[in-house]
Amino acid sequence: MDCYKQSQDSKTAILIARGRCLSCTGSTMDTILVSQCIREKLESSSMPVCASVAAMSDDPIREWILSEGKATQIRGISPIGGGCINRATRYDTDAGSFFVKTNRSIGPSMFEGESLGLNAMYQTGSIRVPKPYKVGSLPTGGSYIIMEFIEFGASRGNQHSDILPFTAFQSALGRKLAEMHKAAKSEKGFGFHVENTIGSTPQINTWTADWIEFYAEHRLGYQLKLAREQYGDSTIYERGQRLAKNLGPLFRNVVIEPCLLHGDLWSGNITYDKNGEPVILDPACYYGHNEAEFGMSWCAGFGGDFYKAYFQVMPEQPGFEQRRDLYMLYHYLNHYNLFGSGYRSSAMSIIDDYLRLLNV
After folding, report:
1. Tens digits of per-residue pLDDT, 133-182?
2. Is 264 a catalytic site residue?
3. CATH code for the part of the protein at 3-148
4. Which of 6, 26, 84, 353 is least buried, going by the fewest C-beta atoms within 10 A?
5. Among residues 2, 59, 264, 305, which one is catalytic?
6. pLDDT per position as a tens digit, 127-138
7. Which fold has domain 166-358?
8. In the chain, which residue ranges form alpha helices assigned H by DSSP?
């Protein structure tokens, strides 16, 4: 779960690349960074800019910036530490700034999924996201993504500032998110063009005509299988599968269209630009039921102003409140698989509540 954050000293947007988040309380998520990552940050931060530029003379990132990026001069390269999976860097040029993430051990498929998601959201012209420019392979192994660098008006996850009152920001976020859901639909059904990741967990996006089938198999079912394989947790697997096979009654009289979803909308992936406009980041995009977007609401800080503005554009459907926990379940299961048993009880409680409700 990549985390944009604003540097307190330079007031520029930085990105903490895919740190594993241990817990989420309120609107913040504590990130544990191992000592090796801290050492890498300190070492990279002390590298002279001129040395960085010289060392990258044959780097495809630099080559793209100086050709397709319309720059004639790279004025500075600023390593941004904090990530244990991806390394983030800001390139300042005479054509503006670029944001770059690199990974020395993983091929371009992960960044391709991110790029396709960002581009799909960008094309709606609704809510602001960083525009992706280029994904490629590094000559020494690994991959990179180049994207727009956005100057933020706050640190990532901070929805309070002098630029925009909190209630106004919540309303703008709800309205623009609904506009994205309304604008972007898929004729192929539910899924996405490629598999991507939710955190570091693979997210299966096989095109499926029926939403209930898609959610039962590729969201709940996949996470339940991971829990059984990883922890030998046959209890949560068996009860969860029983729920997944009996979801139909929860969707009576509901019109479901495949809307473009951000897919991982928690507070750390929400901020605003220097003009006060909402910005959402680091997606796990797919086309799904619009209500599934609220699956991380337990860690997003959505308030009444957000939902009021959202439902003015995308009207609330019958049974929404009854389905809310169903969509949270996917993310609780993912957190269980990523971060351990601290999330098991929440997932198990939701499963048992639905089994009682459905009498199955």
Report:
1. 999 999 999 999 999 999 888 655 566 556 778 899 999 999 999 999 99
2. yes
3. 3.30.200.20
4. 26
5. 264
6. 999 999 999 999
7. Aminoglycoside 3'-phosphotransferase; Chain: A, domain 2 (3.90.1200)
8. 35-45, 49-55, 60-65, 109-123, 166-183, 211-214, 222-231, 234-244, 304-313, 320-339, 344-358
